[in-house]
Amino acid sequence: MRQDREAEWKRLLLAARAGDEGAYRVFLSDVSNYLRGWAQGGLRRAGRSTAEAEDIVQETLIAIHTRRHTWDPDQPVGPWLHGVGRHKLIDSLRRRTGHDHLSVEAFAEVIPAPAAASDLAEGDILNMADSLPERQASIVRSIFVDGRKTAEVAATLSMSEGAVRVALHRALKSLAARFGKDSSHAH
Amino acid sequence: MRTDQLIDALSRDPAPALPAMNALIARALAVGGLISLGLMLATVGVRREMAAATMQGWFVLKLALVALIALAGWKLASRAGKPGRSLQFGVLAAAVAAIALACFTDLWMLGTPGVGRRIIGDNALLCIVTIPFLSIAPLVAGFIAMRDGAPTRPTQAGAALGLLAGGIGGVMYGLHCTDDSPLFVAIWYVAGIGLVTLAGAAAGRRWLSW
Predict the structure, then answer these.
(1) pLDDT beyond 70 at A106
(2) With the CA atoms of A140, A174, A71 and A119 taken in that order, what torsion angle do they form, in degrees rounded to the nearest 10?
(3) Which of A39, B47, B117, B119 has its CA at 20 to 30 Å from residue A14's CA atom?
(4) Closest residue on chain B to A166 (Cα)
(5) What is the distance in angstroms between the Cα of A26 and the nearest Cα belonging to chain B?
(6) Rounded Cα–Cα distance for residues B131 and B69 (Å)
(7) Boundaries of CATH 1.10.1740 in chain A?
(8) pLDDT band per the 50, 70, 90 thresholds, residue A187
(9) Mean pLDDT for all residues in chain B
């Protein structure tokens, strides 16, 4: 991991913690390019088509998102990201390829791969929200699809803002569990 | 779905909704520890001559040794939930060394007469049964917190939580138990805590993977 990338990721994640949506978007896009390069490499080495890479990228992004509180600001971002990413990549490659011992190259050696227009995941986690309990589904749709503010959604549902954010977190975690299964069965 | 759509959605929720891992585990332990304390008071209870016991070095040493095991569990568990962090075995090594040192001190100060009595104690069976019983609440609470973490090695994370919960159960039982010799701690407390650690490892494998 290059030093300047580490410093940049740390700056973006700290800004995201303070509520900066733009910084978080830049962080996730940058990370997704690394994950794509990583997933494509892993699939290629397992003798698989790289068409499934995008599902793995998205699954891992959701894992990073739902576990972002496990990063301590006094800890470097690179090793944390590598830990979550490696765990998720190996898990989803194993589910898709049936191989038990997959080599995943070091994060530092990954060549970032920007998304191509054709890169589409089979799964659609936002559409899956319909299967959630009513209140959770409406929170997921309001914030993720309609782009409404947490405070606004909280007022509509007469919940506290904190409760809305925790409900969103729980909803996303249960969707993520299903997303992994559905997209690996689709192939 | 395109990945940039997903990124757009996720970026609308930038700050973490949950507190940091250490706070999550600490909160769970406070609840689990209180339940364990309540169960200890309701079942075996505090030893009768408690006030006199606190004046005795061996009693205080026993509690300190068991608390050190709990601290070792805390150090391991708090790291196990955070990816990219190596586990800290320093406190565990210190706990093992302290127990060994305390055993030598016991043998040196009190000698071999009565050593069998100090090892077997008054109630070894109650010790290895009650410590796991008093560890259940902190173990369950710790697991609930750890499921919100990201343990990349679920078995190790479960074992660390078992060590921590076993240490807490051990301290609670220590308030009841009248066997204060380090020799007793080294065998029976360690056995009870070891059982909880093994149970934690098995449960971690099953319930902490993500």
Answers:
(1) no
(2) -70
(3) A39
(4) B17
(5) 9
(6) 13
(7) 1-118
(8) very low
(9) 94
Q: Is B149 on the interface with A (CB under 8 A)?
A: yes
Nearest to A69 among B1, B12, B20 (CB): B20
DSSP for A105-120? Answer: --GGGPPP-PPPTT--
From chain A, the residues in CB contact with B144 under 8 A are none
Q: What angle do CA B136, B139, B140 make, to 5 degrees?
A: 85
- Of B9, B121, B7, nearest in space to B58 by CA: B121
Q: Which residues of A touch B14 (CB under 8 A)?
A: 16-17, 19-21, 23-24
Residues A182, A124: Cα–Cα separation, whole Å = 10
- pLDDT tens profile B53-111: 777 899 999 999 999 999 999 999 999 999 988 888 999 999 999 999 999 999 999 98
Share of chain A above pLDDT 70, in %: 86
- Residue B36: pLDDT band (50, 70, 90) is very high
**pLDDT tens for each residue of A23-80:** 999 999 999 998 898 888 888 887 888 888 888 899 999 999 999 999 999 999 989 9
Instruction: Please name the residues in contact with A39: beta carbons below 8 A apart, sequence gap of 6 or more.
Output: A50, A52, A53, A56, A57, A60, A89, A93
CA atoms of A139 and A111, how far apart (whole Å): 37
Contacts of A68 (CB under 8 A, 6+ apart): A13, A16, B16
Which of A25, A71, A145 minimises the CB distance to B11? A25
pLDDT, greater one: B140 or A178: B140
Hey, how many other C-beta atoms are within 10 angstroms of the C-beta on B139?
A: 26
pLDDT of residue A49: 81
Q: Which helix (H) or strand (E) holds A99?
A: none
CATH topology for A122-187 is Arc Repressor Mutant, subunit A (1.10.10)
DSSP, res B149: S
Contact A166 B149 (CB under 8 A): no
What topology is assigned to A1-118 in CATH?
A: Rna Polymerase Sigma Factor; Chain: A (1.10.1740)
Q: What is the ipTM of this complex?
A: 0.87
Select from A12, A26, A67 the residue whose CB has the most chain B CBs within 10 Å, as the one to mutate to test that interface: A67
Chain B residue nearest residue A16, CA to CA: B14
- A 10 A CB-CB count for A157 gives 15
